[in-house]
Structure formats: C-alpha cells, structure tokens
Write a structure and sequence with these properties.
This protein is mainly α and about 300 residues long. About 75% of the residues lie in helices and about 0% in strands. The chain has one domain (about 15-295). The protein has 13 helices and no strands.
Length: about 300
C-alpha cells in the first residue's frame, strides 16, 4: 500500500521517545555484543541472547490467529539467521565502528524493499535527506581504520539485508503486541541457535554454567536493551508508520556506535569519522524536519 493510499499519521511525543530510545539501545548494543562474543563464543553468545529474550517475554507467548506465518518467519530470520551473521561478523572483526557503518545498509535496503514490495512512495525531500545521510556513511567507510575488515563487513551487509526483510514482515504485524512478537522471536531463535552453537562450539556450550556474571550481564543488555526495547520500539513504530518514514530515523545509530566504540575500545575518532557523523546527522535533521513540516502543510 502506498503512502498516499495510507496517509502518515503525525509522530507523537511517544513516537519521538521511541526513536531516541531505539537509537541509543542499538548504538550501544555493538559494544555489548562484541564483549559477549569475546568473553564466550559467537554462537554461544547468540543463543544465550535469544534465551534471555524468551525468558523476558515468555509470559506474552501466545498463538495469534492469522499471524503465525509472519511470526515464525520473523523468528527464523530475526531470531536466528540475523544473529548468526551479526555475531560471526563481530568475532572476525576488531573495528566495531566499521561494522556499525556497514550496518546502516539496512536503511537503503529497507527503502528499496518498501518501494518494490509495499509500493510505498518516497517524497523528494526524504530521498535528499537519505542521500545526504548515505554520503556520510560512505565517507566513514573511507576511514583508514576500516581497512582489513572485509569478511566482517560482508557479514554485516548480509545481516543488514535480513534486517530489511524483517522490517517488512513487522509492517504486517499491526495489532500484535510487541512482547508477543519477541516472545516468538526468542523461542524460534533460541531453538535454531541451540543446535548451531552445540555443533560449532561444543566446549563453550558445555561451560556456559561457569561463565562469569559480567559476561551474562553484557549478553543480558543485548537481549533486554537491544532486542526487547530497541527492536520493540522499531516494531511499534513500523506498525504505526510506513517503513520509508521510520527507517531514516535509525541513522543516528552508527554515530552513537562510533562514538561509544571510540571511548570504550580507546579508538580515537578521526576527522573523517567526525565529518561523516555530522553529515549523517544533517541528513536525519532534513528528513525529520521536512516530514514534520509537510504534515503540517508548511513548505
């Protein structure tokens, strides 16, 4: 359905809070996932994350008539395949900021799929804002610190495509409680990742009980902060607004990730990184302000 056929509702104060929380949770999440992967193993950490998601959301697990195909598909893609790609990429990479940048390919992927599959129409001002933001992301890729991360970046690109597909599935989940969605994501994801982790990391899986509490803390932050809260905010927004309107609101995530990674992993920000981040933020500002003005009938 096109945006003209289904008019955009104005962003409410709650919507803007959801956007801010979503970007913060996702921006900080790469640090938590990287620490979890380093302190355990990539597939073991992925399984524990989805297990925590299931435990948190299990009171809301229920059959939803007419939506089970979408829920199961989302569980396979978002709960299983996405985290295999993400955790593997972090396991083979040292430059977390570079992966944060590559992860923003999910935005153009989502917009392309929204146009092709949902027949959404993207107005010129949002195209311009997205283009400016994409220029900023591309500029960050030319940072010398991103060199040598080819496999990690390739896996992140795969994860970005999976994320984009999941954003379309979530668009079909109107009326389904967010915690019910992620109860199924946790159940299906944990079910897929359990045999994968045992097959690839048997020693790590047998020693899960002996992991220090700090390791569980990092993984729990990913499960609660990124998946339940961050993804929950995204699901909430996509159910209320077209994908092409929501996706540009995620472009603050790489800026937060780059700054947080520079601080936590003691990687100083370069002029290229700073310039690219400012350009990304400028693009987001254009998209946000122009969209708000258009809804209010301003030029």
């Amino acid at each position: 359905m096109s945006e003209e056929a289904q008019p955009n509702r104005p962003f409410s104060g709650t919507d803007y809070i959801a956007i801010i929380v979503m970007n913060l949770m996702w921006g900080l999440n790469l640090i938590a996932v990287k620490m979890g992967v380093e302190l355990s193993e990539p597939m073991t950490a992925a399984w524990l994350r989805q297990l925590f998601v299931l435990i948190i959301c299990i009171p809301f697990l229920k059959f939803v008539p007419g939506k089970m195909r979408e829920l199961l598909a989302l569980g396979v893609l978002s709960g299983g395949m996405f985290y295999i790609a993400v955790n593997w990429s972090l396991a083979v990479s040292d430059n977390v900021a570079a992966l944060a940048i590559a992860g923003q390919l999910g935005a153009p992927f989502s917009l392309i799929l929204a146009v092709i599959v949902l027949k959404e129409r993207i107005a010129a001002y949002r195209i311009a804002g997205m283009a400016l933001s994409f220029v900023g992301v591309v500029l960050l890729v030319f940072d010398p610190k991103a060199v040598g991360e080819e496999l990690g970046i390739a896996l992140t690109v795969v994860a970005s495509l999976l994320w984009a597909i999941c954003s379309l599935i979530q668009r079909r989940m109107q009326g389904v409680p967010v915690l019910t969605i992620y109860a199924w994501v946790g159940l299906v994801g944990a079910s897929i990742l359990l045999p994968v982790a045992f097959a690839t990391e048997p020693d790590a899986m047998r020693q899960v009980h002996s992991l220090p509490l700090s390791t569980f803390g990092w993984i729990l932050f990913s499960a609660l902060g990124s998946t339940v809260i961050g993804q929950g905010c995204m699901s909430y927004l996509i159910q209320r607004h077209p994908v092409s309107t929501v996706v540009p609101m995620t472009l603050a995530t790489p800026v937060i990730s780059v700054i947080a990674a520079a601080y936590w992993f003691e990687r100083p920000l370069t002029p290229v990184t700073i310039a690219g981040g400012l350009i990304v933020l400028a693009g987001i500002a254009i998209v946000t302000i122009r969209t708000a003005n258009a809804r209010e009938g301003k030029q």
